[in-house]
Design brief:
Length: about 425
């Protein structure tokens, strides 16, 4: 089967296995003796982290679901998407403590990437609310793991990009909810300095994220639209499925270019009103891009890469300005860019977030982007930075091992539970895991 990541920047042919239960998964590992396999959920990681010669898909895996409505704890098979669960939990007065920017992500994928959201500065990552996991390792054994049982396997699996085994189920603590609506406010900033100042002033709000105009220059460089959100308590929990539009075919390559991106950025910035306040449903606030099915087709046949950079320096403006200048000078413009603030990271070995700011860029794939990326990584090496594995398509082994300080601890646990190194992805080969 031909597969690619969400960025559509690499296509490969893989053998796909579709087990229906744990016994079939174990048979695939022990009897079929496949090697070079990775688990794949809904394929929403951007690069090659869910690509391998062999894929174990849990599409046909029998779904299991239990919900303690009083305590707000769900236990479900890992092939549930967040969107499927939202339909059940919102009307019962619960939501996820942490959610990424798409609900078309499986629970297993959310754990493997240890996803974060618009509230990391206050509430941390997805795995901080995972009570326990069940995982089948490369030995063909089923393990229960948590912070109290098989702790090191738990820490390696949360954020471990699926390299410790097949996550088959998870128990998750939810957030008590009194409304399906978010009290939303918009703040527009004139430049990057003002954007960072506003983040510091507003970080007592539960959710905060900024769209950044990556095409603006001079005194307007880094201007942003900050979206702030807090849960309402009006008692309205009725779930409503929102209609979506689709982009079934890849756009012609000429449509998205430096001129159209600059025009879009200018219109988008001026369209939004400063200090506007309004009520917004959860779907629109957390998952705006999910309203457009297959929005990745906007980037054309060659796809795009997304780069998310963690900046841990005291003054993030210096490196963010350098990054903006770097891509502007090379006419590599980001169609969608964002800034978020992170709080303290957790103890998982390969989890991405830590105290600092994160800048995310979406760049259309071009012939020279690979070369440009190598130059970009050289720039990042001069600062305290890190790139998110789930968004990565090009990271070098040297940069990975330099910036993921717990790499050796992760490798030790992976070797313990996957001694034959059966589980790996194209990404793990590239970065030397």
């Amino acid at each position: 089967m031909s597969l690619s990541g969400w960025g559509n920047n690499l296509s490969t042919f893989s053998n796909v296995y579709n087990p229906e239960n744990n016994d079939e998964i174990i048979n695939i590992i022990l009897k079929d003796k496949i090697s070079g396999f990775i688990t794949r959920g809904l394929g929403r990681s951007y690069g090659d982290s869910s690509l391998a010669d062999n894929i174990i898909s849990l599409k046909n895996y029998k779904k299991l679901f239990n919900f303690d409505k009083n305590k707000g704890i769900i236990e479900c098979s890992s092939n549930y998407s967040l969107g499927e669960l939202i339909k059940i939990i919102i009307e019962k007065g619960w939501f996820f403590n942490v959610t990424p920017g798409s609900k078309f992500v499986t629970v297993g994928g959310a754990v493997a990437s240890d996803v974060h959201g618009k509230n990391h500065h206050l509430d941390g990552s997805f795995s901080d609310y995972v009570v326990s996991l069940k995982i089948i390792t490369g030995e063909g054994k089923l393990y229960n793991c948590s912070r109290n049982e098989n702790q090191q396997l738990f820490q390696a699996t949360c954020g471990g990009m699926g390299l410790t085994g097949i996550i088959v189920s998870a128990k998750i603590q939810l957030l008590k909810l009194k409304s399906k609506f978010i009290d939303t406010q918009i703040i527009k900033t004139k430049n990057l300095k003002e954007t960072i100042v506003k983040f510091k002033e507003l970080n007592n709000n539960k959710y905060i994220i900024a769209w950044i105009d990556t095409t603006a220059k001079n005194e307007a460089k880094g201007r942003s639209i900050i979206f702030i959100g807090n849960h309402l308590d009006d008692g309205d929990l009725k779930f409503e499925e929102k209609k979506t539009i689709s982009i079934p075919l890849k756009f012609p390559d000429f449509i998205l270019n430096k001129y159209t991106i600059k025009l879009f950025s200018k219109i988008y910035y001026h369209f939004h009103k400063h200090k506007k306040k309004f009520k917004q449903n959860l779907n629109n606030f957390f998952y705006p891009l999910d309203n457009i099915n297959n929005w990745n087709n906007l980037y054309g046949k060659n796809g795009f890469i997304q780069i998310q950079i963690l900046i841990e320096e005291k003054d993030p403006k210096i490196i963010i300005n350098k990054i903006l200048d770097f891509f502007q000078e090379r006419e590599q413009h980001s169609f969608l860019g964002s800034i978020k603030e992170f709080g303290k990271g957790n103890d998982n070995y390969l989890s991405f977030p830590n105290k600092g700011y994160t800048l995310t860029l979406d760049l259309k794939m071009t012939k020279k982007l690979n070369e440009v990326y190598q130059e970009f990584e050289d720039l990042l090496k001069k600062h305290k930075t890190k790139i998110h594995l789930t968004k990565d398509s090009f990271m070098s082994e040297q940069y990975f091992k330099k910036t993921y300080s717990n790499y050796s601890k992760f490798k030790k646990i992976k070797n313990k539970y996957d001694p034959l190194n059966l589980i790996n992805s194209f990404q793990s080969h590239r970065i030397g895991i």
